[in-house]
Write a structure and sequence with these properties.
Beta-lactamase; alpha+beta; 40% helix; 13 helices
């Protein structure tokens, strides 16, 4: 009788376990399958991610080296083209400006400097600093972050200049060169794309670290941004005189590590439950309203009047899909280096490319985003 009771107890436990397993399948697996079916039912067997990939394979879209898509913290699409692979570090060009801004915001978060602090008090710590124009005394950290320093510089694609890129990237004394650019407008008033702004931002961070007796900017960025995100295989570049981080660009990153930086922005400074930078410091990127004098938005022929805005070295472009609109935060680097952050879809998309100097070709990723990537991402949103 005792043995029979034990047998019945074992059978009851097995039945309970089976029931629990079925409940888990119903709770977790069925909704995931439903979400996948939602996209499949909407688009048929030809999913937009795959269609975009197929168009890049025969070079309908040319000069694209990688496309990675993350949604809800998961990698959902990953493709590399030509000689590029997941192990290939890619030159970021000006996408690194957006990363420099994150380093600056972490420094601000640590009270090493403030957004309203004049930059010259920090740059004067270096012997090469020579600001003969008194107007430069009014340039603040926030003016560098927002590209509103007032410097006589206009390096956006298609603009007539002045262009100071060579003096910053390859000149023997880029700090002195940058500070010798004359001021033509009051700091904080007018947006002008200028590599000197991003270089000076990095130099200002270095000055703040020096003032506080802290590590150099390379060690600081590694300790407080790269290491927490488990970014190890990257390379910063220095100015020609060896003193400063090239905050304007030219660093090298793996595409999946660029995606981590986008995910950090998406999560408003949080990384696996740890605060990397306070969310309020990233909020201006989300709420950007600084109008700029050029735009990616005219790829959207149906809404040519939509303009791109700017804040903290990040862009915000509005994409129209039918009657709905989606705000997308993004970086931009020459050749086609983009980190797209899509808050509405809880997604990050990374492109790298080799279309240096060909701005129309660089803009093809906006067509890919509009036609293929955003529709699928938005279809996969969990409505619950």
């Amino acid at each position: 009788m005792l043995g029979q009771n034990r047998l019945v107890a074992v059978q009851n436990k097995q039945s309970a376990l089976k029931l629990l397993l079925w409940l888990l399948v119903f709770i977790y697996v069925v909704p995931l399958q439903a979400k996948t079916n939602q996209a499949e039912n909407r688009f048929g067997s030809k999913r937009p991610f795959q269609e975009a990939h197929q168009l890049m394979m025969p070079n309908v879209y040319t000069g694209i080296d990688s496309m990675l898509v993350y949604q809800n913290d998961k990698l959902v699409s990953e493709h590399y083209y030509g000689d590029f692979s997941a192990e290939t570090k890619h030159r970021t060009h000006s996408t690194f400006k957006s990363i420099t801004a994150l380093i600056a915001l972490i420094a601000i978060d640590q009270k090493l400097l403030t957004p309203d602090e004049p930059i010259m008090s920090l740059l004067n710590l270096y012997e090469s600093a020579d600001a003969t124009d008194t107007g430069k005394q009014r340039i603040r950290v926030i003016d560098l972050l927002n590209m509103t320093s007032g410097l006589d510089c206009n390096e956006a694609p298609g603009m007539d200049g002045p262009n100071h890129e060579w003096g910053i990237d390859e000149g023997p004394d880029p700090l002195k060169y940058s500070l010798n650019i004359k001021i033509i407008s009051e700091p904080g008033e007018k947006w002008q794309y200028c590599n000197a702004n991003s270089f000076l931002l990095a130099a200002t961070i270095s000055g703040a670290l020096k003032r506080a007796g802290r590590e150099n900017i390379f060690q600081f960025a590694d300790k407080f941004l790269m290491q927490p995100l488990n970014i190890e295989n990257y390379r910063f570049t220095k100015s020609e005189d060896g003193q400063f981080l090239n905050g304007q660009g030219n660093a090298y990153f793996l595409p999946q590590d660029l995606a981590k930086l986008g995910l950090l922005v998406l999560k408003k400074g949080q990384w696996h439950g740890n605060k990397i930078v306070s969310p309020e410091l990233l909020e201006p990127i989300y709420q950007s309203n600084q109008k700029i004098n050029w735009s990616f938005a005219y790829v959207q022929d149906q809404v040519p009047q939509i303009k791109t805005t700017y804040a903290h070295q990040w862009y915000k472009t509005v994409f129209y899909l039918g009657k709905s609109k989606t705000d997308v935060l993004h970086s931009w680097g020459n050749g086609g280096q983009f980190i797209f952050v899509v808050p509405e879809a809880q997604a990050v998309v990374v492109f790298t490319g080799s279309n240096q100097g060909n701005f129309p070709k660089q803009k093809q990723v906006f067509e890919i985003m509009l036609k293929y990537v955003l529709p699928e991402l938005l279809a996969m949103i969990d409505k619950e």
